[in-house]
Amino acid sequence: MIVKIKKSLKDAEHRHTAINAFLALTIRILGAGMAFLFNLIIARQLGAEQSGYFFLALALVMLLSAVARLGFDNTVLRFTSADAGNGHTVKAILNFALKYVLPVAFIFTVIAYAFASLLAEIVFKKPELTDTLKLIAPAIIGLSIVFLVAMSLQARHKLVASIPCQNIAHLMLCGAAVVVFSAKSASDAALYLSLSLGVSSCFFYWLSIKNLNNNGEKPDPQQLWHSARPNWVIIIMSQAVQWSAPIIIGVFLVAEQVAFFSVAQRIALLTSFILMAVNLVVAPKFSAFHAKGDDVGIRKTALFSVRLLVLSALPIVLFMLLFPEFLMGLFGEEFRQGALILQVLVLGQAVNVVTGSVGYLLMMSGHERDMRLVTLISGFGVLISAPIFTKLFGAVGAASATAFFISLQNLLAVYFVKKRLGFNTLMFWQKI
Known about the structure:
The protein has 18 helices and no strands. It has 432 residues and is mainly alpha-helical.
C-alpha cells in the first residue's frame, strides 16, 4: 500500500491532492479537537440531563437549517469550483443562494420560537426544554449562513478559512462563553451558541467576499436551481440520517439518553473527520475535472483519496472499538453507559470512510439525481426504523438503525459511481 502511494505521488495532481489533504487534515484535527472540547465542556459543565436538552435542541436546529438551505450547499460548491477565478461570479453565486435561503431560515426561526412550548410539552414531553428551544432558534439563521459561506470558501481552496467557518469559530466562542460565564443550564448554552453564530457568520461572509476581483458574469439562475432542487432532497435526507436519531430519542426516552447518544455520535464522527478533510480537497477537483470532461482525472483522484483514507482512518476506528468506555468516560462517569452506542456508531462511520468520497463524486459530476435516490432510501429508512428500534432497544436501537442506513447509503452510492463513472471505490488497490 505504502509503495503504491509513493508511486502515485510522482503524479503532480496526486501531489497537489495529498499536500492539500494534509493541510486540510491538519486544520480538521484542530476542528475535531475543538468540537470534542466543546462537547466535553457542555457535558461536564451542564451534566447529563441539561446537556441532553441542549443536544436535543441543537439536533433540531441543525435539521431545520439543512431544510432552510434549499439544497444550495453543494450547488454553491459545484458552480463556484468551476469558476473560482472569477470574483464577480463567485460573489454572485453566494449572494443568489443567500437571497433565497435567509428568508426561509428567518421563517423557521420565528416558527421554532413561537411553537417552542408546544414542541417541548406535547412532542418531547419535556417542559424544561422550552427556553432552550426559544434561545437556540436564531441559530438556524447563523448555521445557514456559515454552511453556505464555508462551501464558497472551500470551492476556492481557502481551507484555512473554510473549516473554521463551518466547524471551529462558533464552537470556540460558545465554549469559551459557557466556561467564562459558568453556564449551568441548556438555555444559557443555547443563547451563547446563537450569539456566537451571529458573530462568526457576519465575519466569515465579509471575509469570503473581501478582495474578490470583478471578472466573470452572473450565473444562470436556471442552472443553479436545476442543481439545487435534487441537492435539497440529498441534504435533507443526509441530515435526517445524522440528526433524526437524537430527536427520536428525545421523543421516546429521557434527556440523559439523548446526551449519551449525542456524545457517542460526536466521538464516532471523529472517525470520518479524515474523510471530511479529504472531501474539502477533492470535491472542487471533481467539479473542475467534470467541467473539463476529464473522467480519467476524476477516477485517479477518487482512488488515490480512498487509499489515503484507509491508511489514515484504520487506527482511529480500532482505538474507538477497543476503548469505548474510556472515551465516553471522559465526559463523566455516567456517560460510560453509552459505550455500546459508540461502538455501533463507529462501525457505521467506518463504512463511510472506506467507501470514499462517493457522494461528492456523484454530485460534482452532475449525477445529483442518483444521490437523491440513495439519500431518499437511507433517510426514510432511518425515519421509519429508528422510532421502532428506539422503543424496542432504547438508544442502542437508534444507534443500530443509524449505523445500518449510513452504511447502506454509502454502499448504494458506490454502486451508482460504478454505474455512471465506471470504477469501484471499494477496489482501491486497483491500478490508478
